[in-house]
Amino acid sequence: MIDFNNKGFFKLKQNLEYADKVTELLLENEQIIDAYKSMRDGVVFTNKRIIAVNVQGLTGSKKDFTSLPYKNIVAYSVETSGTFDLDSELEIYFSSLGQVRFEFTGQTALLEISKIISEHLL
């Protein structure tokens, strides 16, 4: 499982490359909202869950996929980018896992993702 306390994993930039890596894991009516990549690892947001991809080893052929269903979220916080601070953040509290924090650089679908999370919470 991914170490969610490792902040290096979470400087994410929009990149659809990781959407292709998780297509075989998707359920029948599950759709990808957006995908993000850090140095080697990535995160894919679908309409049902978050899939975190941890690339392992020198060649990167070994991958760890962590599924974080929206139904297990108890609270979340969104910080959008501003004029000078272009980074945005998504902080999520899962019932059994605890706090997970994602930091984004550049363009994101954060408002759309937060609406989907709200649909599962409310």
TrEMBL record:
InterPro entries per the UniProt record, alphabetical: PHb, PHb_sf
Gene3D superfamilies found in the cross-reference section: Bacterial Pleckstrin homology domain
Annotated Bacterial Pleckstrin homology domain residues: 15-120
Pfam family, one: bPH_1
Domain of life according to the entry: Bacteria
CDD domains xref list: PH-like_bacteria
PANTHER family xrefs: BHLH DOMAIN-CONTAINING PROTEIN, HYPOTHETICAL CYTOSOLIC PROTEIN
The protein, known as: Bacterial Pleckstrin homology domain-containing protein
Taxon lineage: Bacteria, Pseudomonadati, Pseudomonadota, Gammaproteobacteria, Alteromonadales
